Amino acid sequence: MEPNAPFVVDEDVEDIPGMEMDIIKLSALNKWAHEATNTLPQVVKGGTLKQELNRTLWPTFIRFAPNPTLQATDPPTDHYLMVDQKVVFWYPEIFFSWYFAGDKMQPRCPKCGFRSESVGWNDRLRRVFALGKPYFVLSKRWKCKDKKNCGEFFSSISEQVMAQYPAFISSQLDIVFTEKLAVDGQLYRLIQSMVVIGGVSFSSLCDIFREQFNTDCLRIIHQFCSYWHIKQSKTICVDSQEVRKSRVSLFFILT
Length: 255
Fold this sequence. Notes:
Blueprint: H1 20-36, E1 43-44, E2 48-49, E3 62-64, E4 86-90, H2 92-95, E5 116-121, E6 126-128, E7 135-144, E8 153-155, H3 159-162, H4 167-170, E9 175-177, E10 182-184, H5 185-197, H6 202-232, H7 240-245
Parallel strand pairs: 4-7
Antiparallel strand pairs: 1-2, 3-4, 5-7, 6-7, 7-8, 9-10
């Protein structure tokens, strides 16, 4: 069973009506994620790391964006969107550097099998739909070194690249990727069980997940209202009309 609507990801978000605002909302999270990659070690000639990975700062390739309510001063409005946001930084050659060495530090081109070179990180985060709320993946971007005959660009999360990793590495990115979808493996297997085996209609299943998502949104809204009340010394009601008037209304249209 392939995942289907209403799940949406932002690979070609400009083509989806009403999704333009989503790019604005994600700008702060996207900026934070790309700045965080600057603390990762660089790969130098010979396929070795320029310096050791800081395991205190990077105990794993999963990080949570900073919580703005921990700050004494008012952060920019769009930083409130970063509350509880999880980002997966998928660059296994760095995080499993003990396994990769030499030519293995760069994946082979999935089109021709030639060596590749890094061209940085993908510009945008890839949204992954999961139980409760979505999270995000930031992946590496590669280019085939055979510029004359190939020159293919590809991502570290492509199926052909993932197949080059041993199972103990690839299985840690438990996500089902399609051309325009990314669904957490746990959610995908639950959908299969409930729809294919349990006979639950897909529309009913969507209603269940939508209600769960709305509950989580409401929790964050209450959290923010409490914080805003203390910071601004005035009451903000959770009523939809009041929220719509707030200068942080974008926050409540959560990703």
